[in-house]
Design a protein that fits this description.
23% of the residues lie in helices and 23% in strands. It is built from 20 helices and 42 strands. Helix 7 packs antiparallel against helix 8, helix 8 runs parallel beside helix 10 and helix 13 packs antiparallel against helix 14. It starts with 7 loop residues before the first helix and ends with a strand.
């Protein structure tokens, strides 16, 4: 619904007044709000950009006539434009100016709502300043219980495009920033609603790419592991640190949720559809044909007229200007509440912000395989639609009050700057309707149903007694069950173990039994006897949960469960049988192949056949651009497998089968935990020295019952490299493999070592990473590696990376100044790649099938120079050629206050104008 320019001032003023009445008066914010929407009058007719072919599908029949600018509406007016099925209503619970550009919400155990505010997302069509530190995570409460969140604080402010918010206990969250590698825990210690304590939670968590392609949605699964999009691993906090395990690729961008069975559902982005949902992702990937019902990829949005689709006119449904083929999706939720119609329970919801719709999906399971159906496809409609072109639904959440919340960024542009460049179809549409002017807004909506009042019970779980919390595991709203389980697990109060055990074994509520089982698992109190009783339960749902939970017990060393697994592989229920096959695969049970063949022979269901065949003959893993991680090469896999054999034959006796350390009584371990160990994942020289020469005494003040790690220097370089590669890559760690050559160098370097190391001594000898915030960096040339990035030499230390921008020329340099003279041991960086100049994607082509022409931006030839004063320089002997991918430059402890890397050759006659780029730069001193 477009209005003439003459009404803009009145409309904006009324909008600001309405919002002030809704969330409280803030004159400064109102002035800022009005300034956001200063738009020009109707623009003159546009013309095709230079080089555009009017016969191309992108441009054919494109409307370039002058248009009135799209204007924002007040929440009250926007609500009038929503289209919902009969009986449903929608109402705002929090809007601008209190929040800006919300991207996700999450509730803590007291029902307080954390809002991820991406305040820098697409403020201009060129995504200018997208990585400025002005985003925030705010926290909101409905103190008067009227359904509106009126009281809030900036819980963490001045963030660089934060990736997620996960409440992690009372007054505590986990989050991380874009182009970063570390997840931090932020805590409010004085109760003022603002975090004042920041602690490292885990590292090696980031992925590179533009802001749409990085990891997001750290999510607490029912199995007590934390998952995220993009990353093919899961993490978990233990008393001995944060551990991780590899999973299948989830190929998701923005959204994770789980159902009552604990299965995770991941949401794609560019695909426009759910990404991975068939089986729990920890069991790897299975290729299932026809997962989506026929016609699933056709959206049925309302007539918005704009035709502002990145794919061009080929993606436009005429004459209403809506999207004719899904192209972008975001946010998801399996509704598990209790205040909407019962038929919605277990239904999957996700947003398509390009189409301006929220879709309801009915998952239909047949012979163990799931097919997704658009509930409103026959009516050529969707669950929620809007004729307001600024409606941008990007997250869905089952709320504590039992209803469904929709996060609406209410934004002009909903495509990252890489795809809105000058000359593109989408940029033309953005300028035609002045969509780049609509920024800084955002609304959170509640969907209710006639005759079903929202639950007004206010959660207060952090103040409840532990025994009272257990009853919430039987609550009809899945949010309450999840929150209670998480609080119980974090509280670590073992006094409720008998209460939980009784609930798991005897409660009449299947969902209560499920959560009690997983709470026991999370507390480390799950006994084999409980699992074995539940494996014989008449309810197949509970047999499935018992199989999954038992995996923790088996990995901790109880092999008596093998007989139970063998029995499960003959279960008459198709879903239980499939789970037994997945568990057998996950645990690598003895005689796995014969067990799978026996299962397949006993049940001819399509799901059993598919899972069995793909376990026996795994399909080739796909690597979907930024949504997967590189597979190990055949030689690397062989090395890790050799290392696993060594570890299980020798090291596991002290360090534990799963790397968590072998208990030695009285809360002590026989030897340190290696899973999730920062020492094992740090510079390779530390673990190599330990294996070669041994380690004794306290480690960071902690003694171990085993006393010492014996020297293994009699073993070959290959042996040491193999076992350490397995530990660094296969025991919930994520670090580089180690080569025999690296071991040989350290062996030669430490030939004079007498006896075992003491930890304090070893710490001083091992190279340590210098923190980038303490360094001053400059460069002869600087450009961002991507549109909208920070233009700074310091970006070399992040996933975003630094680039010269132009072609490599002799004399280009990158310089680091240290706070004081240090002995520089090593430089490490990743040489990024970029898309070949002039290439653009084919409209409508799925990202996974695109053949993108990349150019490699590693430095072709260079020298390293050092200086004590920044004036007099001398060259250091070092490897002078860059390579594609990871680069390691050994400097052997050269003393320097300044260090300069300088190109020694030009790339003459280079039609691709290959720049010099570096990312994830690390500097080690000793």
């Amino acid at each position: 619904m477009l209005k003439s320019f003459s009404t803009i001032s009145l409309t904006v003023a009324l909008c600001a007044i309405a919002m002030s009445a809704f969330i409280g008066s803030d004159p400064i914010m109102q002035i800022r709000l009005q300034q956001n929407y200063v738009v020009t009058d109707t623009l003159p007719k546009l013309s095709l950009p230079e080089g555009a072919n009017p016969d191309d599908p992108d441009w054919k029949d494109v409307d370039l006539e002058a248009k009135a600018p799209v204007q924002p509406l007040s929440p009250t007016d926007e609500a009038k434009l929503f289209l919902l099925p009969p009986g449903y209503k929608i109402e705002p619970v929090l809007t601008e100016p209190a929040i800006q550009q919300p991207a996700a919400i999450s509730f803590d155990g007291n029902g307080r709502m954390y809002v991820l505010e991406l305040r820098t997302y697409m403020l201009t069509a060129d995504s200018k300043d997208e990585l400025k530190p002005t985003s925030r995570i705010s926290r909101w409460e409905d103190k008067n219980n009227d359904g509106v969140y009126e009281t809030g604080t900036a819980f963490v402010d001045n963030l660089i495009f934060p990736r997620f918010v996960l409440p992690y206990g009372k007054d505590c969250i986990l989050t991380m920033e874009s182009d970063a590698d570390n997840v931090y825990k932020y805590t409010d210690t004085n109760g003022d609603g603002k975090a004042d304590k920041k602690e490292l939670f885990t590292t090696k968590y980031g992925r590179s790419g533009n802001v749409e392609h990085q990891q997001a949605f750290m999510y607490w699964g029912m199995d007590n592991w934390l998952y995220s999009t993009v990353n093919a691993f899961r993490v978990r906090e233990t008393p001995n640190g944060v551990i991780r395990e590899k999973t299948g690729f989830n190929r998701a961008q923005w959204g994770i949720t789980h159902d009552d069975n604990g299965k995770l559902w991941f949401q794609g982005g560019a695909s426009g559809v759910p990404s991975y949902f068939q089986f729990p992702v920890q069991y790897g990937n299975f290729d299932v044909p026809n997962e989506l019902a026929k016609g699933f990829d056709v959206p049925y949005g309302a007539a918005v007229k704009l035709a502002d689709m990145q794919g061009g006119m080929d993606e436009v449904r005429q004459p209403d200007g809506s999207l004719n083929h899904v192209t972008g999706s975001a946010g998801n939720d399996v509704y598990r509440g209790d205040r909407l119609p019962a038929e919605l329970k277990g239904q999957y919801f996700y947003g398509e912000p390009v189409a301006r719709i929220v879709r309801q999906i009915n998952p239909v399971v047949t012979e163990g395989l799931t097919t997704l159906h658009n509930v409103y496809q026959d009516q050529k409609s969707e669950f929620l639609r809007s004729t307001d072109p600024l409606f941008r639904p990007i997250d869905m959440t089952t709320a504590p009050d039992g209803t469904l919340y929709i996060t609406d960024m209410y934004h002009g542009i909903i495509q990252e700057g890489q795809w809105t460049q000058k000359g593109t179809y989408l940029r033309t549409k953005i300028e035609q309707y002045q969509l780049d002017k609509v920024v800084g807004l955002g609304r959170i909506w509640r969907i209710t149903y006639e005759g079903k009042e929202r639950d007004k019970t206010r959660p207060n779980m952090y103040a409840e007694k532990t025994a009272d919390l257990v009853k919430n595991l039987a609550h009809p709203n899945g949010w309450w069950r999840d929150a209670a389980q998480q609080v119980l697990v974090q509280r670590k109060d073992l006094s409720v173990v008998p209460q939980l055990t009784a609930m798991a074994l005897t409660n009449k509520n299947t969902l209560a039994r499920t959560h009690a089982l997983w709470t026991l698992e999370g507390l480390g109190a799950l006994k084999t006897s409980v699992v074995q009783k539940m494996l014989k339960d008449a309810n197949p749902h509970l047999r499935i949960q018992a199989l999954r939970a038992s995996e923790t017990v088996y990995k901790a060393g109880d092999k008596t469960l093998e007989a139970d697994y063998k029995q499960a592989l003959t279960d008459a229920n198709t879903d239980v049988l499939i789970q037994a096959m997945l568990t057998a695969k996950f645990l690598k049970l003895p005689d796995l192949d014969n067990g799978i063949k026996t299962a397949m022979a006993s049940n001819k269901a399509a799901g059993v056949k598919l899972v069995g065949e793909q376990i026996l003959t795994p399909p080739k893993q796909r690597n979907m651009g930024p949504f997967g991680a590189p597979e190990l090469s055949a030689n690397q896999k062989a090395q890790v497998e050799r290392g696993a054999l060594i570890y299980n034959e020798l090291c596991s006796q002290c360090h534990g089968n799963n790397g968590m350390g072998t208990p030695a009584g009285n809360g002590r371990l026989l030897a340190p935990a290696l899973a999730g160990s920062q020492h094992m994942q740090a510079h390779p020289e530390y673990p190599i020295r330990v294996v070669l020469h041994g380690l004794e005494g306290a480690i960071e003040g902690k003694m171990y019952a085993g006393g010492m790690m014996a020297s293994m220097k009699e073993q070959s370089d290959e042996w040491v490299a193999d076992v350490l590669s397995y530990i660094r890559n296969g025991l919930s760690n994520d670090a580089s493999l180690i080569s025999a050559q690296q071991v040989a160098r350290v062996r030669q370097k430490t030939a004079d070592q007498k006896g075992s190391y003491q930890y304090a001594q070893l710490s001083k000898l091992t190279p340590y990473e210098l923190q980038p915030q303490a360094l001053t960096v400059t460069a002869s040339h600087t450009a961002s590696t991507r549109i909208g990035g920070n233009v700074s030499p310091a970006s070399a230390f992040t996933y975003e990376g630094w680039s010269t921008g132009g072609r490599q020329e002799k004399g280009m340099w990158y310089q680091i100044e240290f706070p004081k003279e240090v002995n520089v041991a090593e430089l490490r960086f990743t040489a990024s790649q970029s898309i070949k100049k002039g290439w653009k994607p084919t409209p409508g082509q799925p990202m996974g099938s695109m053949k993108i022409p990349f150019i490699q931006n590693y430095p072709r030839a260079f020298i390293i120079e050092v200086s004590s004063d920044g004036q007099t320089w001398h060259e250091v002997p070092a490897e002078a050629k860059g390579v594609e991918g990871d680069n390691i430059i050994s400097l052997n402890g050269v003393k320097a206050k300044f260090l300069k890397m300088q190109l020694s050759e030009s790339l003459a006659n280079d039609p691709d104008e290959i720049p010099w780029s570096m990312g994830q730069l690390k500097v080690f001193a000793q």
